[in-house]
Amino acid sequence: MKIVHISDLHFPTMIPFLSLKGKSIIGYANYYLRRRKKHDLTLIQNLISYIKNTEYDALVISGDLTNVSEEREFAAARNWLDPILDARTFIIPGNHDRYKRESLHPELKFEKYFSEFMGTSVSSEYYIRKKMIQGTAFIGWDSNRPLPIAKANGYLDPNIPKETFKIIGNDYFLVCHHPIWNPGNYLESNGHKMVNRREIAELLLEKPPLIYFHGHSHSNWVKAPGKLAPYYILNSASSTRFSDSSHACGFHIVNVRDSKNMDIKRISYHLLSETFTETDLLLFEEDRGEI
Ligand SMILES: [Fe+2]
C-alpha cells in the first residue's frame, strides 16, 4: 500500500482584522506578520498538482488546515484541497482547526467541511474515527481542544486507545495531530506538546500501529521502530511552508509491504526550480529523541 502523508497546510486566507474577536485577533496577527509569506501560493499549487499526478492508495492529512478556525478559512481549505479529495483521503483536525470555542459550538466547523473524508465515528463518547482503505484500518484521534492564547498543547483521554483496541484487528495506521516522540534537537515545551503522551505511548504497546502519522511541529522527521514505540513515527509538517534553518519542510510517501518492510521517501520543495523532488530522509533511532 502506498500512502501519501501531508500536514499543517495552514492555507493562507485573508481575513478582515475588524471581523475577528478575542484570541483570534492575536492568533491571526501572529500568522499574518510572521508566517503568511512562508506559505507561498505557487508552492501550494505545486503541492496539489504533485499529489494529483502521483499514484497512491491513501492520502493522510494530519490537521491544521486553518490558522484561527474562521469559517472562511475552512471554506478556502476545502477549495484548495478539492482536486485531491476522494475515497482515498483520510483527514483529522489539528489544534488550529479547534482554535476557539466557536469552532466547536454551535456546530463542528471542521466536520462541516470535511466529514466525508474523516471516516466513521466508532464511539459515542470519544473522537475515534475509522476508515478502511485497501482492507486496512486508518484510525483518527483528536488531541486538540480550544486553549488560552499562546498554548497549543494536546491531550488524549487514556480511554481512547482502550476503546480503539476493541474495534481494530492487528494491522492499523494511527493518525493524530500531536507528536508522540520528538528528536533531541526538536523538543517541544509543555505548552506545545501532547501533555500525556508517555501514558498514551505505554498504552499503545498493547496493540502498536503500523505507523503513527502526525504533524504540529513544523519540521519533517521519521522515527524508526524502537522499544518504547515499536512502530514508525512520521512527521510531515509543514508541507506548504518554505524550509529554513530550523524547519525542514515537505512530506512523505510510504510504500508499506508489511509491518517490518517499508520504503519511506521524503519529498520537499526546491525553491529555484519551484518543484517538489525527493530529498534526504531525516531518519532517527528512538534513543536520539524522547517521548
Ligand atoms: Fe498544530
Automatic annotation (TrEMBL):
<keyword id="KW-0378">Hydrolase</keyword>
<keyword id="KW-0479">Metal-binding</keyword>
<feature type="domain" description="Calcineurin-like phosphoesterase">
    <location>
        <begin position="1"/>
        <end position="219"/>
    </location>
</feature>
<comment type="similarity">
    <text>Belongs to the cyclic nucleotide phosphodiesterase class-III family.</text>
</comment>
<dbReference type="InterPro" id="IPR050884">
    <property type="entry name" value="CNP_phosphodiesterase-III"/>
</dbReference>
<dbReference type="GO" id="GO:0046872">
    <property type="term" value="F:metal ion binding"/>
</dbReference>
<dbReference type="InterPro" id="IPR004843">
    <property type="entry name" value="Calcineurin-like_PHP"/>
</dbReference>
<dbReference type="Pfam" id="PF00149">
    <property type="entry name" value="Metallophos"/>
</dbReference>
<dbReference type="GO" id="GO:0016787">
    <property type="term" value="F:hydrolase activity"/>
</dbReference>
<keyword id="KW-0408">Iron</keyword>
<dbReference type="InterPro" id="IPR029052">
    <property type="entry name" value="Metallo-depent_PP-like"/>
</dbReference>
<protein>
    <submittedName>
        <fullName>Phosphohydrolase</fullName>
    </submittedName>
</protein>
